[in-house]
Amino acid sequence: LPFPSVNRFCAASTNRTGFLCDDRATCVLASQVCDGVRNCRNGEDEQEELCGDLPRSLPGYLVFHCSNLAYWIYADQRCDGMNDCGDCSDEMGSLATCPPCGPEWWSCSPVLYEFCSCIPRRLCRDGVQHCTTWSDEYIC
């Protein structure tokens, strides 16, 4: 049987999309697949069949396609609070279907490229404007 026919989907830490190693116990984060580091004991997360033609060689569940089809990210980077696609389609887009900001986050319209609709609460009242309305400095 060809390599990708085995179902290797798993839920890694904090319910992030993962890749199941041959031992059927180790679940590697999607973004750790084809990163040059052998996370599975036998190195199956770095095999040529899997990593030879990114993202086409990856199983679909490991990939998220950004609104700009020239870009893709690993599925565990979707809804992680960071603007990985560059246009926030991985955090705010209808494709991403992200839950609202969690308790560790402040909801606003950030101006910083790094974030999209929520900023980490640790950035509240840090003297730096992260939200267009300055709500992170005055209300948060």
List keywords for this structure.
LRAD1 protein; repeat; single chain; mainly beta; three-stranded antiparallel β-sheet; 140 residues; two-stranded antiparallel sheet; elongated; 16% strand; 6% helix; transmembrane helix; LDL_receptor-like_sf
Written account of the structure:
The structure is a single chain. With 140 residues, this protein is mainly beta. The chain has helices at residues 48-51, 135-138; strands at 9-11, 17-20, 27-29, 63-65, 72-74, 105-107, 118-120. It has a domain at 1-79. It has a 3-stranded antiparallel beta sheet, with no helix packed on it. It has a two-stranded antiparallel sheet with strand order 4-5. It starts with 8 loop residues before the first strand and ends with a helix. The model has no long low-confidence stretch (mean pLDDT 92). This is LRAD1 protein. It is a single-pass membrane protein. Residues 99-138 form the LDLRAD1-like C-terminal domain. Keywords: Disulfide bond, Membrane, Repeat, Transmembrane, Transmembrane helix.
Sheet having the most strands: 3 strands, antiparallel
Q: What is the percentage of strand-forming residues?
A: 15-25%
Task: Specify the overall morphology.
Answer: elongated
Tally of strands = 7
Estimate the mean pLDDT confidence. 92
Strand order, main sheet: write it out.
1-2-3
> Rg, please?
18 Å
Q: Find the structural class using helix and strand composition.
A: mainly beta
**Tally of alpha and pi helices:** 2
Q: In angstroms, what separates the terminal alpha carbons?
A: 55 Å
Helix content: under 10%
**Poorly predicted parts:** none
